[in-house]
Structure formats: C-alpha cells, structure tokens
Amino acid sequence: MKILATVAAVVLTAFTGAAMAEDLPDLGGKTVVVVTENAYPPLQFIEPGTGNAVGWEYDAMAEIAKRINITVEYENISWDAMIPAVADAQYDLGMTGITIREDRAEVVDFSAPYMRSEMIMMVRGDEERFSDAASFAADDDLLMAAQPGTTPFYVGVYDVLDGDEANPRIVKFETFGAGVQALRAGDVDLVLTDSTAGEGYVSASDGGLKIVGEKLGTEDFGFIFPKGSELVTPINAAIEAMRADGTLDALNKTWFLDYKIGG
After folding, report:
1. Is 201 exposed, middle or buried (0-12, 13-18, 19+ CB in 10 A)?
2. How far is CA 50 from the centre of its chain?
3. What is the dihedral of CA 5, 8, 9, 11, to 10 degrees?
4. Is residue 211 classed as helix, strand or coil in its secondary structure?
5. What pLDDT is attached to residue 22?
6. Tell me, what's the pLDDT at 11?
C-alpha cells in the first residue's frame, strides 16, 4: 500500500476521494451484462466447497455497481471467445484479468487499469532442473503450459523460447487452471502467470508449487467493452474513486494476502 509522507497528503487524498464520490454519475439502475470465465483465481473463480463464483473482480464490480447505480447480470464464456463476443456487443463488459494491449484496443475499449501485475515463472515445489528463463529454454525436454491468446502465451513464445508460436514445447490448455493441474501432475514443467494468480496458487499449495527466476515484465489489467460504449467513462470514474479512497488496496489485501484458495 502506498505510504503517504505527510498529513497534508492524507488530507488531500481524502478530499479528492470524497469529491470524486460526489461527482460519480447515477445510471439509474441500468442493467449491465458482464461476461467472465470463472477460471482465474483470485480474480474470479468457482470457490471449492461452496460452488459460488467469487474473487477480486466480483467484489470490485459489486462496488462499482453501488457507486454508479447499475444492476449487474453475469454470464460465462471461454477465454478465447470473450474478446470477440464483447467486440460484437454480445455483452456489455468483459472481466477476466485482461491485459491492456494495443492490438486488443483495436477491437474493444478498455477501462482505466485497475491492477498492475508482474509476469512470473511457477513450477513444482521440488523443481531443481532449472531456475530461470534461460535455463528452462536451454533444456529441450522441458515443457511449458499456456492458454493460447494470453499474455503468458506470448511471453513464453517470444521472451522465453524462440519466437515460434507452434513450438511443441508449449502445451496448450483451454483454461489457466488446467495448465496448473498439468504442472502439478508432472505433465508440464512450467506455467507462466501474472503474480496475482501465481502467488495465490503458491500460497495455497502447501509447498507443492513455487516461483523461480526473475520477473519477466509487468502488465496492466482492465475491463473490456464494445467500441464506443457509454459505460467506459462512468466505470473509469468509479475505478479512480476506489483507488483514491483505498478500496482497491483493501481488495488487494483481501484476495492476495488474507484469502487462501481452496480453504
């Protein structure tokens, strides 16, 4: 969490947050259909034991809904279909830890970033054959799990391996969770992921998983909308108000420090 250096800064931040809250638009209970994958903990996933859809993004969206007075309805879709479906205006908004990228911004509009994360290498807890990207790439017997079309897939192809998207060392999975299961089962040797998901899995693994090597870069997450959506401006205003008053920091603490995936 950001530490403010002076009392004056604290007062200014509080005043700004209050002013932004007062200025937030009221959308009159408008129904907004949000589509997600429910396969990317701790951002959104089906909670073991309860079957409930939970996560950072659900809590954030509930707070946004209160602040700008919208009614949220949720739908499910696979990752590979999400961006095309939102671009085609089948849904009002998509959320699933989507990295803000220029190529995607050509077909959908992004919200302001709500989270910044770093790319990390997740391996089994007893892995000793490699300790960083270079030593992984040097061993042709090692395999990486990846979900096609995601930032981890492209980082794996271009920053870890040889730039060949058809490289057989990249084993493709439909969901991030399936790749993690393959890692734990020994079918692959590495999963690249952002630190938000990776740290959640590692903390819940009882030593079964660990993080190795240096971070491979940063990425900003945003919600996506059909091009020209009138929701972008009010949702951006809500995100900035939540950033100013500490709500985003509180959500980070809840889901990345306090919550343990799987119990």
Report:
1. buried
2. 22
3. 130
4. strand
5. 55
6. 34
Q: What is the pTM of this model?
A: 0.73
| Among the listed residues 209, 200, 191, the one whose alpha carbon sits nearest the alpha carbon of residue 262 | 200
Strands (E), the chain: 30-36, 39-40, 44-46, 53-54, 70-76, 93-95, 108-110, 115-124, 144-146, 170-172, 190-194, 209-212, 218-221, 224-226
Q: Report the pLDDT value the prediction gives residue 256, as an integer from 0 to 100.
A: 77
Pairing of strands 144-146, 115-124: unpaired
* Cβ atoms of 112 and 240 closer than 8 Å: yes
Residue 164 in tokens: 């060949």
Which two structure tokens, joined as six digits, stand for 231? Answer: 């929701």
Parts of the chain with a pLDDT under 50? 1-21, 263
115 close to 223: Cβ distance less than 8 angstroms? no
| C-alpha distances out from residue 173 to 44, 134, 225, Å | 18, 23, 25
Query: pLDDT, tens digit, for every residue of 242-252?
Result: 999 999 999 98
Report the chain's C-alpha Rg in angstroms: 19
Query: Alpha-carbon distance 91 to 140, whole Å?
Result: 42
190 contacts 144 by C-beta, under 8 angstroms: yes
